[in-house]
């Protein structure tokens, strides 16, 4: 099972899933099941629907990082 959900996508799915799960338990009912799917795919980093649609946000993130490298600041550098 190759990871096909990028970190931003996974984080958004996880948060949305938690919200929908909470609402599903509290009031809305069936929305909790949809929330569980978002929560699970965000946590695993894999979405079966992305496989069918041939989407891969993890690969998009990797390509973005290669084109836009950033170096974290060096706080341990002494003058």
UniProtKB/TrEMBL annotation:
It comes from the Bacteria. It holds the Pfam family YgaP-like_TM. The chain crosses the membrane at residues 12-30. Residues 1-58 form the Inner membrane protein YgaP-like transmembrane domain. InterPro entries: YgaP-like_TM. The keyword Membrane applies. Keywords: Membrane, Transmembrane, Transmembrane helix. This is DUF2892 domain-containing protein.
């Amino acid at each position: 099972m190759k990871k096909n959900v990028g970190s931003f996508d996974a984080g958004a799915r996880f948060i949305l899933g938690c919200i929908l799960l909470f609402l599903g338990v509290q009031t809305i009912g069936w929305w909790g099941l949809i929330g569980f799917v978002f929560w699970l795919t965000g946590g695993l980093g894999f979405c079966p629907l992305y496989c069918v649609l041939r989407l891969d946000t993890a690969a998009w993130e990797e390509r973005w990082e290669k084109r836009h490298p950033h170096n974290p600041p060096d706080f341990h550098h002494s003058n």
